[in-house]
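Two folds, back to back.
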Amino acid sequence: MRYREIIKKIQHDSGFSDAESEIALDTLVESLAERMTDEELRKFVSQLPQELKNIALTTPMEDREERHMDIVAEFMIKEQISEDHAKKQVLSAWAALKSFISEGQISHIRAQLSPVSARILY
């Protein structure tokens, strides 16, 4: 899997610009990494292209804990965008990302999410 392929898929599916597709993908990977245990993060990172590995692995340890804020709300705050736009970014980035990672990893990610975030993504 290549980073640019994922971005192009987001762009194609969402109609976002290349830059916005990249922001959505990077923000999603960062948000997911913040919700993972060390073991699950290592498994997740092993399936990512280098650019996304760097994002996931540079998430500060103190930020990597269970998050109760849903991912859409987090996008709204980080990017200063509306709820509808944040939801479209999250869902577009997730659809593209999960087409490049294993089913097992997708299940492991779900187990790491709060119930609110899991409902949004699944």
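---
second:
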Amino acid sequence: MPAPTRILVTASPWSLTRFVPTVFGELLALGAELLFAAEPGTDPVPDELAGDSRARVVELPIVRRGAEADAVKLLRRLTDLNRFLGPDHAASSWARRRTAVRALAAAGHPDARAAAAGLAAARLPAPVHGVLTESLNELERSLPPPPALAAAVEALGADSILLVSRCSLGGTERDVLKVARALGLPATMLVWSWDNLSSKALINERPDHVLVWNERQVDEAVDLHGFPRERVEALGAPSFDRYFEELARERATPSAGDGDRRTILYLGSSKNVCKQEPDVFLRWVAAVRAAADPLVRDARVVVRPYPGGGGWRRWRPDPPGDFTIERSRKQQPAELARLVLDADAVVALNTSAELEAALAGRPVITFRAGEEAPGQEGSVHFEYLLAQHGGFVLDSRDLDEHVENLARVLRGDVDPRPLAAVAERFVRPAGIDRPVSPLVAAAVLEHARGGARTPATIAAG
């Protein structure tokens, strides 16, 4: 019997345990052995794989330590900031502000948050930005991987590396890919979510293969990150496989309903989109209750605070409003499937849960929250889901137009089926009934067995 293909998996523990455990089960079934990289004292193995001898944790010094760590951090945060100062990212005001804060903090500025506004307002002309980008990239390319990390990975005897990447700002992806190149290990990057390539760090180290959700992300990988198109595959979103299962299960369970009264579900977004979204929500509720159309005015309102907390964490409305709060401390596909299937319309500012709602066949509507939600219009990926740009979310300039759109939806004047089809192509381009996890696992294993590359020379530190 041939030896199992040994794959070193690197990612944040949160990404692994909550979003892609199904891929790992498929890999094990196909004959892989999985080594989950972790900093000392952490255990990123998904619960479903605990106790399986073919899936184990290996402690690696992934985070840089020592005298050069601060200098490397500053270089990478300046690189992150520079990305959003260029003309191609004029709409990325939120990312510009966030990366400015991080860069100034790394440089030791005494009041980085206050100073970030001025820095984030800067723009670099295309020629200047191009020269600066190449200079920063050249500095990054000349930086060797941490010797201790390279030695530790080499000792594992891995056949390949799977990087589950969020394109994290200032993250460790660059060092992991440097080690893969230095050791001649094939490296596959699985992009974690739909906004990562457009709103986070530039990946200026090249994996051998990149797995993304859809053709829009293929274009992003090529146009924004410079990956060769032939190395990027649009296989779909494995993180939605369980949600599809829960949708099927919930659809098979009759709902009690609420008579003729319509239900509007408000899905909260992360603090990166809106730090104090409860304030926006309460203003939205007031507009709904003041609507001229009784279908909107008298609708049952359900709000699901963002599971990660943020501005929702300590929110306890006083006095309690005319709405129902459905709290969740973590991502729960079954609970979300029940909520969206019980709704007649779904409202959100900018969140992946809009995709779940559309996949359930529910109309999704947004409204512009302005300066209170800098991560809404200030994010490039917000435009991706809007119907006027080929997406499925019905947009509204303000709350007055939003209430009118809600009335249209609740009266049945909007057919959600074409919009749902757009969402389906976004997460399952190979077919709505075809789970993505087996496709991703097969691709990862094929690339892992494709053979070692010629090791690169590690520059002197």
